[in-house]
């Protein structure tokens, strides 16, 4: 089993070493596309982004932060008023409960500050590992893991960077084959490529510079 595992990681590491430098060239300025000014805003925006586009979240958060500029203000929000502001993001009742619970815990347990550890962040209502990774890697400058969303799940399977299917195991694979200082950027660059080229329904393989070294691209384009 150990030899099989070593061979697996050797294969995906070799593929990463081919693919990732090209993603760096394609997307040198890749970044989180949620608008935020501080860790609290990014935390709230990321909670809203579940099953919702970043564009829609960015249309919603200006009003949200104008009304509730900090955890204290958000913790005192009336549920109905909060729901009306975030309604367009979908699942607004659940998200409102998460935002209220998150902000109340920040006030009560963390003096109104967003904590900077994975263990503390995932205690917050509405915050799982992916959200914590987004906040840590972008707003707090700490690479504790790699955010794995639907784009990343799709891309690693198509490109050959992981054969796993769960976000947790995909994250472990990517952490194993990539430098820690690149963890946040690995996610950003995969997401940017997924949004711009490697679309869910119809990947633009004929336009993709990764295609010659991508298993899916080679298959679609009939490349040997």
UniProtKB/TrEMBL annotation:
Keyword Lyase: yes
Cofactor(s), by name: [4Fe-4S] cluster
Free-text cofactor note: Binds 1 [4Fe-4S] cluster.
InterPro entries on file: DNA_glycosylase, Endonuclease-III-like_CS2, Endonuclease3_FeS-loop_motif, Endouclease-III_FeS-bd_BS, HhH-GPD_domain, HhH_base_excis_C, Nth
EC category: lyase
Residues of the HhH-GPD domain: 48-196
Catalytic activities: 2'-deoxyribonucleotide-(2'-deoxyribose 5'-phosphate)-2'-deoxyribonucleotide-DNA = a 3'-end 2'-deoxyribonucleotide-(2,3-dehydro-2,3-deoxyribose 5'-phosphate)-DNA + a 5'-end 5'-phospho-2'-deoxyribonucleoside-DNA + H(+)
Lineage top rank: taxon: Bacteria
Biological process (GO), any one: base-excision repair, AP site formation
Alphabetical UniProt keywords: 4Fe-4S, DNA damage, DNA repair, DNA-binding, Endonuclease, Glycosidase, Hydrolase, Iron, Iron-sulfur, Lyase, Metal-binding, Nuclease
One Gene Ontology term of the molecular function aspect: metal ion binding
EC number: 4.2.99.18
Annotated binding of [4Fe-4S] cluster, by residue: 198, 205, 208, 214
Entries under PROSITE patterns matching the protein: ENDONUCLEASE_III_1, ENDONUCLEASE_III_2
Pfam families referenced in this protein's UniProt entry, alphabetically: HhH-GPD
Entry similarity comment: Belongs to the Nth/MutY family.
NCBIfam families in the record: nth
Role of this protein: DNA repair enzyme that has both DNA N-glycosylase activity and AP-lyase activity. The DNA N-glycosylase activity releases various damaged pyrimidines from DNA by cleaving the N-glycosidic bond, leaving an AP (apurinic/apyrimidinic) site. The AP-lyase activity cleaves the phosphodiester bond 3' to the AP site by a beta-elimination, leaving a 3'-terminal unsaturated sugar and a product with a terminal 5'-phosphate.
Name of this chain's protein: Endonuclease III
Native organism taxonomy: Bacteria, Bacillati, Chloroflexota, Chloroflexia, Candidatus Chloroheliales
């Amino acid at each position: 089993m150990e030899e099989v595992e070593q061979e697996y990681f050797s294969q995906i590491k070799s593929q990463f070493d081919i693919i990732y430098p090209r993603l760096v060239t394609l997307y040198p300025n890749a970044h989180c596309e949620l608008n935020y000014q501080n860790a609290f805003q990014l935390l709230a925006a990321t909670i809203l982004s579940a099953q919702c586009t970043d564009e829609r979240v960015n249309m919603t958060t200006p009003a949200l932060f104008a009304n509730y500029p900090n955890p204290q203000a958000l913790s005192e929000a009336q549920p109905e008023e909060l729901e009306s502001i975030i309604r367009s993001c979908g699942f607004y009742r659940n998200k409102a409960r998460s935002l209220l619970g998150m902000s109340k815990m920040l006030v009560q347990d963390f003096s109104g500050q967003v904590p900077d550890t994975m263990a503390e962040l995932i205690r917050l209502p509405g915050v799982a590992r992916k959200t914590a990774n987004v906040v840590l890697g972008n707003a707090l400058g700490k690479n504790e893991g790699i955010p794995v969303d639907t784009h990343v799940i799709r891309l690693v399977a198509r490109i050959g960077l992981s054969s796993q299917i769960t976000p947790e195991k995909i994250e472990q694979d990517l952490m194993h084959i990539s430098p820690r200082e690149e963890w946040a950027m690995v996610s950003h660059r995969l997401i940017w490529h997924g949004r711009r080229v490697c679309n869910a329904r119809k990947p633009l393989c004929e336009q993709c510079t990764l295609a010659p070294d991508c298993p899916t691209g080679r298959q679609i384009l009939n490349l040997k």
